[in-house]
Amino acid sequence: MKEIRFANKLIRILVKDRLHYPGRLFVDTVSLIARCGILLILYWYVFKLNGGLVNGVTYNIVAWSMFFYFAFSTLRLRDISRSIMRDVQSGNIEVFLNRPVSYLSFKAWWQIGSGIYSFLLVTILGSVGLFFIIGIPQTMTIGIFLPTLLLVFLGASILTLLVYALVGVLAFWIEDIDPVYWIVDKTVMILGGSYLPIALFPTFLYKIALYSPFGASQFITHTVNESWKSDWYVLILTQLLWIIVSGITLYLLYSKAKNKLSVNGG
Questions:
Q1: Over the chain, what is the mean pLDDT?
Q2: What are the sequence ranges of the domains in the chain?
C-alpha cells in the first residue's frame, strides 16, 4: 500500500509538470505524425495498387496495428535504460539506493508518470482521427477486444520495463550501454511491427515475434489481427511467461549489481 501511494503521488506530480511544460507532448505528437503518418500514407498507396488487399490483409488492420505500436512508444518506457545508465555514470545511484523505496520501482513509476500524459492524449486524439479517416476493422468490434487489449497493454508495459531495465542494469559493468540498447531497441522495433506490420511478416519472422520477449513486449499490435480472437489467450500467457523470466533475471542481475557497488564503493 505504501508503494502504491508513493507511485500515485509521483505520477500526479509528473503529470502536473507535463501540463505546465507541454514540450514533451509537442515532440511526441510531431514524432507520431512524422513517423506513423508517413508510413500509413505509404502503405495506403501500396494497398491501393494491390486492390485493397496484401497477403489477404486489409489496409485498416495494418494501419491500426502500426498506430498502436507508435502510440505505445509515446509512453517512453524504454527510456528507463538510459536513465539507469545516467545514475550509474554520475554516481547518483548510491543516493537512490539509500532511499526506503526500491530503486527499480522508483525508476519504473517515474517513466510511467513521465510519459502517461502524452500517451493518453496522443492515443485518444490519434484513435479518433483514425476512426473518422479509415474507420475500424471488424476485428475491433468483437466483445473480447477491449478487455484483452487492456490485459495485453498491461503486460506489454511491464515486460517493456523489465527488458529495458535489464539493459540499464548492465551499466554497472559496461557503463555505456548504448550499443546493447540499440540492438535491443531495433529488435523490438522490427518484431513489434513498427515498419513492417505483423500481419505481413514471413512465417519465420512471425514465429520469432510470437515467442521472443522482444516481440511479446509489443503484442498490443496483434490485437487487430484476425487471429486474435482465437490466439489471444496463448499470446497473453506467452507474455506472462516472459514477464516472470525477465523479472527473475532482473532481480538476480540487480542483486549482483548492488553487491558489486557495495564492494567496489561505486
A1: 87
A2: 2-264
Choose the weakest-confidence range: 48-52, 67-71, 120-124: 48-52
CB-based contacts of 147: which residues, under 8 Å, 6+ apart? none
- Listed in sequence order, the DSSP H helices in 21-169 are 23-31, 38-49, 59-73, 80-90, 93-97, 103-134, 145-169
- Measure the CA–CA gap between 76 and 58, rounded to whole angstroms: 29
pTM attached to this predicted model? 0.91
Angle between helices 203-211 and 228-264 (to 10 degrees): 60
pLDDT of residue 241 exceeding 90: yes
Ramachandran region, residue 201 (left: φ > 0; alpha: ψ -120 to 50; beta: rest): beta
186 vs 35 pLDDT, higher one: 186
> Which has the closest alpha carbon to 221: 30, 44, 45, 73?
73
Closest to 218 in 3D by CA, of 245, 244, 186: 186
Q: Which of 113, 134, 130, 22 is nearest to 70 (CA)?
A: 130
Let me know the angle formed at the C-alpha of 129 by 114 and 46, rounded to the nearest 5 degrees.
Answer: 105
Say what the pLDDT of residue 266 is: 45
| 58, pLDDT greater than 70 | yes
Q: How far apart are CA 30 and CA 42, in angstroms?
A: 18
Q: Please, are residues 78 and 164 in contact by the beta-carbon 8 Å criterion? A: yes
62 touches 206 (CB < 8 A): no
